[in-house]
Design a protein that fits this description.
Elements: H1 10-22, H2 27-34, H3 38-51, H4 53-56, H5 59-97
Length: 105
């Protein structure tokens, strides 16, 4: 019989990962108590370890980075628009000059 997929909350994952990080119990014990695979406990523990510093990062640093990405995204959108217009112009000129675009190298 196939087991129904469970949807685990972020709180549950955080609790399990924190418990694994403490090291008071083995990964196997934690997995067995919570009815999950030991590899899943290890994965959550690793992710918690890797991302823990994000909690203490300065808010201004992340806001600055977000503004940078938004500015970069706007620039890229404008560039894409420009290239689409140029492509359409060149296709129209090729059509006017009788150049077959299906014979591209």
């Amino acid at each position: 019989m196939k087991r129904k997929r469970r949807h685990l909350t972020a709180e549950f994952k955080a609790r399990v990962a924190t418990e694994a990080l403490k090291g008071e119990k083995t990964i196997q014990q934690i997995a067995q108590e919570n009815d999950i695979a030991p590899t899943q406990v290890s994965a959550w523990k690793k992710e918690l370890e890797e991302r823990m510093c994000e909690i203490f990062e300065r808010k201004n640093a992340s806001d600055k980075q977000l503004r940078h990405y938004e500015k970069r995204g706007g620039h890229l959108e404008r560039k894409i628009g420009q290239l689409v217009i140029e492509k359409e112009f060149l296709e129209k000129k090729c059509e006017q000059l009788g150049i077959d675009l299906t014979e591209r190298p």
